[in-house]
């Protein structure tokens, strides 16, 4: 009764189906392609869309990096990495440069990605119009007709209420001037990295059963008005307390003893690389977090 | 914040997994798979139904591994299901041929073939049986012996196969329209994601895989007030169905050559639901429609609730959420709902930072504005 696990877990038929959906997604940038979405050994909502993409495209030569909210060692990132390694035997890494596939939840690495890499983003809600229209049947139609007034109105109402757009992460983008797309809950800070990206970006929503993509060198613009530009998260005057970087996305932390707010790089692998470069011997351990 | 420390995540989760194993085994009681299969049929049935994988052995193993946690057990089986190639579809089954263990109708006092109560909790008093605290094998054997002797004296053999469907009587009277059989190939929701509007085959698959509690609650809402369904259980059957597949090498597709691959136990419900229609003279008439429910194992509440929702979605009255197919079908799957709810435990500090930034900028703007 003992079963040997198949390479990359899923049977070949399932993987092929996912790859077919992926190819269609690449061919129609920003369009959400429905796929059957298998149940994975990790929970729905914990990156099963990304995981299915990774498992369906991974080969024995690949090197995998997985990050969750910027961290390689976050529990879910570790778990996904472990699962892929167990079922494929591929090497894993924390170095952004060494990876051929980078699966990520809610961040795009600070280190610029290359043409040889594929970014796989985990997506909770793939539908950028879901907040304004709960019905899937209707949103599909709205995309078909390029009818995006709902998304524009949402921004407009924010300006009326708050004097500026008040989106959080997952600020909607226009892909190739055609489809409005949810970039997944990456911070606005990362939206800009999607534009003209050298790497192929694949986005997978397991629970919602959608795959979509931004092919390399595709125009991606954040939804904004001419007189009200999208503002990225601002860390002006702040720096990482470990590596002193300033032009990166920072996590806000509070020193338990002094109650003073301090900041630390969100991209942990980049932080370590910067530190190593500075040849500072700083032990980055649990105690520092 | 400790669980997102720059380093240390790997070690921490290893320890957490160890702790889980400790919790499962620290009393050093081996829970035998046989014991689960023998004594927890209700749970096995529910797990098989929600995971849509029929294997009592694997369901028992999942229950053991999940320490009796339903959502975990279903999750394990569903994930296992993803690793299996699906090469064949079984032949269409006529449930008239069910080997019946239980069959009741609430719409008629007497039905041809008879009301067959079978095994059910329906007629028990739900009083705690404290004798079970010290149940012995000897007492079991004694009870079984007496039971066997009793049944030898019972008169008349019942026909349990090829029992006529109750709906057939209504059809004879013209109270229920006779439809032509729909021979369209069903769409497999596990191979192609559903697109709205759905077909009935897709709806029935999603309903039968639905979480028992969710299907029951929404079915309840549909008859209590947030829906317009007033059903009568026309027929409820519990019994076994034989499964066959076409012989793969046989190009003639001759059913004579089919291979028998085993049997499954199911609960099947046909609810009669009155609806108002207009006849040719534009006069209002009352007719019956059928709501259909079926699920693996014996799970009667779920099957009845499914039959209610089937009819509700077939009619699609937008006044009620229970008649809205997206509202029902997108939210009743155990793996999907528990997964997304539980993902809230994942760290969200990047997204939260983004939110903080937005809120702070707005506050700052308001203060400057007031000055």
Q: What is this structure's SSE topology?
A:
The complex is a heterodimer of chains A (289) and B (371).
Chain A: H1 12-27, E1 33-34, H2 48-57, E2 63-68, H3 75-88, E3 91-92, E4 101-105, E5 118-122, H4 136-144, H5 149-162, E6 173-175, E7 179-181, H6 188-194, E8 200-205, E9 210-214, E10 220-222, E11 250-254, E12 261-265, H7 268-277
Chain B: H1 9-25, H2 33-39, H3 41-51, H4 56-65, H5 70-81, E1 99-104, H6 137-153, H7 167-172, H8 200-209, H9 212-224, E2 232-245, E3 259-278, E4 284-296, H10 300-315, H11 325-329, H12 334-342, H13 349-370
Antiparallel strand pairs in B: 1-2, 2-3, 3-4
Helix pairs in contact in B: 2-4, 3-4, 3-5, 4-5, 8-10, 9-10
Mind explaining what this structure looks like?
The complex is a heterodimer of chains A (289) and B (371). Chain A has 289 residues and is an alpha/beta fold. Chain A folds into 2 domains: 12-126 and 174-222, Bacterial phosphonate metabolism protein PhnH (Rossmann fold); 236-284, no CATH class. Chain A is 28% helix and 17% strand. Chain A has 7 helices and 12 strands. Chain A has helices at residues 12-27, 48-57, 75-88, 136-144, 149-162, 188-194, 268-277, and strands at 33-34, 63-68, 91-92, 101-105, 118-122, 173-175, 179-181, 200-205, 210-214, 220-222, 250-254, 261-265. A 7-stranded mixed β-sheet of chain A has the order 1-9-8-5-4-2-3. A 3-stranded antiparallel β-sheet of chain A has the order 7-6-10, covered by helices on one side. A two-stranded antiparallel sheet of chain A has the order 11-12. In chain A, strand 6 and strand 7 form a beta hairpin. In chain A, helix 1 (12-27) crosses helix 2. Chain A is globular and about 55 Å long. With 371 residues, chain B is of the alpha+beta class. Chain B has 3 domains: 2-81, no CATH class; 95-119 and 157-332, no CATH class; 339-370. Chain B contains 13 helices and 4 strands. In chain B, strand 3 (259-278) and strand 4 (284-296) form a beta hairpin. In chain B, helix 4 packs across helix 5 and helix 9 packs across helix 10. Chain B is globular and about 85 Å long. The chains are: A alpha/beta (289), B alpha+beta (371). The interface between A and B is large, with 78 and 58 residues.
């Amino acid at each position: 009764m003992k079963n040997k696990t198949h390479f990359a877990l899923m049977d070949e038929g399932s993987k092929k189906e996912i790859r077919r959906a992926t190819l269609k997604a690449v061919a129609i940038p920003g369009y959400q392609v429905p796929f059957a979405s298998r149940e994975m050994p990790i929970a729905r909502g914990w990156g099963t869309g990304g995981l299915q993409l990774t498992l369906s495209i991974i080969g024995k030569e690949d090197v995998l990096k997985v990050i969750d909210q910027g961290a390689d060692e976050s529990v879910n990132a570790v778990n996904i990495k472990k699962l892929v390694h167990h079922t494929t035997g591929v090497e894993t890494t924390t170095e952004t440069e060494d990876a051929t596939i980078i699966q990520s939840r809610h961040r795009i690495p600070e280190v610029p990605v290359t043409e040889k890499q594929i970014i796989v983003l985990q997506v909770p809600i793939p539908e950028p119009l879901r907040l304004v229209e709960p019905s899937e049947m209707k949103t599909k139609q709205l995309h078909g007709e390029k009818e995006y007034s709902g998304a524009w109105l949402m921004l407009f109402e924010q300006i009326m209420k708050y004097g500026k757009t008040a989106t959080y992460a997952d600020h909607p983008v226009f892909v190739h001037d055609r489809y409005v797309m949810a970039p997944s809950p990456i911070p606005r800070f990362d939206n800009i990295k999607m534009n003209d990206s050298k790497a192929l970006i694949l986005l997978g929503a397991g629970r919602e059963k959608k795959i979509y993509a931004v092919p390399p060198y595709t125009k991606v613009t954040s939804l904004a008005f001419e007189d009200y530009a999208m503002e990225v998260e601002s860390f002006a005057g702040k720096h990482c307390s470990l590596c002193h970087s300033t032009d990166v996305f920072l996590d806000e932390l509070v020193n338990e003893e002094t109650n003073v707010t301090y900041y630390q790089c969100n991209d942990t692998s980049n932080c370590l690389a910067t530190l190593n470069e500075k040849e500072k011997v700083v032990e980055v351990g649990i105690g520092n977090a | 914040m400790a669980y997102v420390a720059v380093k240390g995540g790997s070690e921490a989760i290893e320890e957490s997994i160890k702790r889980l194993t400790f919790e499962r085994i620290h009393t050093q009681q081996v829970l035998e798979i046989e014991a689960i299969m023998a004594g927890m049929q209700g749970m096995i049935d529910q797990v098989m139904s929600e995971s849509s994988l029929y294997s009592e052995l694997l369901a028992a193993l999942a229950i053991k591994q999940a320490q009796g946690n339903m959502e975990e057990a279903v999750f394990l089986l569903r994930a296992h299901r993803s690793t299996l190639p699906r090469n064949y579809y079984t032949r269409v089954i006529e449930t008239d041929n069910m080997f019946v263990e239980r069959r009741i109708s609430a719409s008629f006092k007497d039905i041809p073939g008879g009301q067959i109560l079978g095994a059910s909790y329906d007629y028990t008093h739900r009083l705690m049986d404290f004798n079970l605290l010290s149940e012995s094998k000897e007492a079991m054997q004694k009870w079984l012996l007496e039971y066997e002797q009793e049944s030898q004296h019972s008169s008349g053999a019942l026909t349990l196969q090829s029992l006529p469907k109750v709906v057939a009587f209504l059809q004879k009277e013209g109270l229920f329209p006779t439809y032509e059989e729909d021979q369209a190939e069903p769409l497999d929701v596990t191979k192609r994601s559903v697109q709205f509007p759905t077909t009935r085959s897709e709806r029935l698959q999603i309903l039968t895989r639905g979480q028992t509690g969710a299907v029951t609650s929404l079915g309840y809402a549909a008859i209590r007030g947030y829906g317009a369904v007033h059903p009568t259980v026309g027929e409820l059957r519990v019994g076994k169905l034989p499964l066959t597949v076409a012989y793969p090498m046989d190009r003639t597709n001759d059913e004579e050559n089919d291979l028998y691959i085993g049997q499954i136990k199911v609960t099947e419900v046909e609810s009669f639901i009155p609806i108002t229609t207009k006849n040719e003279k534009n006069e209002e008439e009352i007719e019956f429609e059928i709501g259909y429910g079926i699920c693996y194992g014996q799970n009667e509440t779920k099957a009845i609730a499914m039959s209610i929702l089937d009819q509700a979605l077939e009619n699609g009255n937008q006044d009620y959420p229970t008649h809205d197919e997206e509202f029902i079908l997108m939210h009743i799957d155990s793996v999907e709902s528990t997964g997304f709810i539980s993902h809230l435990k994942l760290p969200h500090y990047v997204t939260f930072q983004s939110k903080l930034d937005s809120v702070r900028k707005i506050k700052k703007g308001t203060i400057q504005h007031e000055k």
